[in-house]
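Box S1 | Example of a co-folding query
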Amino acid sequence: MLTETSSLVLDARARHGGVAAFNAITLEHAEAIVEGAERSQRPVILAVSHNAVRYHGALEPLAASCLALARAADVPVGLHLDHVEDLELVEAAPDLGFGSVMFDASTLPYADNVEMTRRAAAVLHARGRWLESELGEIGGKDGAHAPHVRTDPGEAVSFVDDTGVDALAVAVGSSHAMTSATAELDLDLVRQLRDAVPVPLVLHGSSGVSDSGLSAAVRAGLVKINVGTQLNIAFTDAVRAGLAESSAPDPRPYLRSARDAMADVVARLIGVVSTTAE
Ligand code: G3H
Ligand code: ZN
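Box S1 (continued) | Returned holo structure for zinc ion
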């Protein structure tokens, strides 16, 4: 059933656990995300990124598919629009069923980031939806590869206060689009941020973190755990294997394998992040 992101994230925080958000690029991704959640009988957040919108050339076709899947699911499914860089998409989100948007002005100077984020917050709050934002650039996206960057707790508190964001993505050692789980998170910093910042904390670039690292991150205070690349690895590996196995033109056998492989990853990671905090 379609559920507000806010209620999924706040419920997870209240039980000292986490909720996983997965990026959907294709219909098969979205189907796999819902299937993995149903198999786990736990909630999930289905995320569509601005980059996926650019890939499809429009938001509505994929968003409508995600909305239909969320409504038909037998577990709670939230819809989230991720890494949005323009206000037009923020404005379009509520009517398409998105309960939350991550507005990404993190590469702007602090004052401009605050100003743009406040505008996005005003748009979403007027519709009763959530805004997530980011402080302390998370490395590896659009050439901003800087895994050493960290979010300062004092700045994070001021940023939340200045902008009115409802959830905050923090830089604590992860980096986007990693294909091996070798990132080491700064768990002491996560605990400091958890204790200082009033809103739930979000981890981006979670594919670079091991399952035990993700579980420890949730125990230390991260709540929304965003995963993209792990699904793409499962998808692409399965398609490669399927194509090597058969030269038949019908894409359904290898797309079905890809969807099954992604659903396995979703179910596993939902279990990993549902752990209880220390
Ligand atoms: O915005 C995307 C998420 O942060 C996922 O990152 O692809 O490195 O898992 P990832
Ligand atoms: Zn991200």
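The chain has eleven helices and eight strands. The chain has a mean pLDDT of 94.
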